[in-house]
Amino acid sequence: MDITKYEKIFDQESRKYLKELEDLLMAVEKDLSNLALWAEIHGKIHSIKGMARALSLTKISDLCHLMEDWCLNFQQGTRISSPAAVQALFDGSNFLGYLVSNKGWIDSFEDQKLYNNLISKFEKIPDEPSKSSSLTETVPALASYQSPAITIDHVKIKYSFIEELLGLTQEIQLLAKKFPSFLNEQMSSGLKNWIGHYTALMKVLYFQLTQLRLMTVGDFADLFLKSIRDIAKENNKSVNVEIIGSEIQADITLLERLREPLIHIFRNCIAHGIETVEERTNLGKNVNGKITIEAKSEKENLYIKIRDDGRGINKSLIINHLKDKQLMTDEEIGRMSEEELYNIILSPEFSSSSTTTELSGRGIGMNVVAQSIDYLGGSLSISSDSGKGTEFIIKLPLSLSIIYAIAFSIGKHTLAIPTLHVKSISNIDIFSDNDRKSYYDIKKVLGVAENKKSSYSVLNLKYANDQSTINQTTTDQATTDQPTNDGKESCRHLLVDNIIGNRPLMVLPVGDLLSGVKLFSGIGIMENGDIALLLDLDNLPPQ
To answer: What is the pTM of this model?
Structure first.
């Protein structure tokens, strides 16, 4: 009998139960005597065990059985739970995730040893907590296995499949643009109506497909709850999480690339911002620290604010850094706004300074986080109130796939180059063949016949190693740059027929049809539905 489909069902259902189990363990960790929660935990483990037994996955079912017995002690009130007992169940849950991924197999001697340790642990009656035990007691050495890194690869259906559908839609629209041109008298009204209807439907299909790329911030934030809990345990702290604006939606690709920066910010908040239980008690604060994740959208921007209610940042230490390391005067510092002052922490100079030690690590690595967010087209800023907490404010475009680009035409082709790569635009009149060597003629690459124009537009390009300032808004003003006869330099000055303008484009990867050409970095859709191919400047062939 083919059991493949049953294995697939087991994998999907087990992963769902394990996620629910993690949520329940995080809840019972803050309410150890809640018998109802222990009953739910027991039920989730029992469900996994039943499915594993049906497929003869002995290692999974054996571990589940012993974990069930542990839960019964707490569910029935025969034993008193402790943070160490909950941690042991977390370890068991992590290892169950590993076994489910491996279809019940254990790959290495070290993993087998860890499995044996877990079995041995759960075969014993849970230890009663001592009077000195607390939420900050040492976690047992069973936690050497780490659950896999969080990834976003499904939104009801496979995410890669959504990308394939979008790429296919783009190629169909490209094909439609190649439909032969006919005079009005050569086409019947029925054919013209059909073409118009077809074009409109394709645009609607495309924009509906783009909605599948969206994920709520609430669902995204849920992926971090276990990581926040683990970081708090590492630092002997207890942290509650509040999510505001969970219904806000954003592009999955954007959120996926935010994972590492956010983990670093959470670690910063917990390790260096939120005080210990003893410190918070002495200050009259709730013993549980609090991290708030707030999302909101304004126009085309997504704002994610991460706040902690910890000790805040000592402003005087930043001022000392500015005086000692950057030789700024009191008058110069006084003219700085609060935002400018705290954002000094994001500078490379500050991150490498010994001042970060005095600030308990608040600056270490924050420059890398800021650079990662800047790479996504966003920005990071910091505000803080000494003794009350710190807030990190991330501003991003709602969709990572929306960029501004200079669109232009070459013959019948519409192409584009990201605005950030264009230094200036100039116009030139007809010139000699010798002068033409100083410019890159994209017509030759595209196989477009020369139309003997009397004038051309020139895109003067900006490369990553060019130290001059990038103009984000490009105009048609003349440039003083004089092209040379260097072959590499000519690629900086691109001849085009007509400039369409600086346009927002929704960009998707090229499909199979165009990927082999290696000349285009993406397919862009303008607001009116027209298609523009993005040139890959690094792959322009030499002339």
So the answer is: 0.56
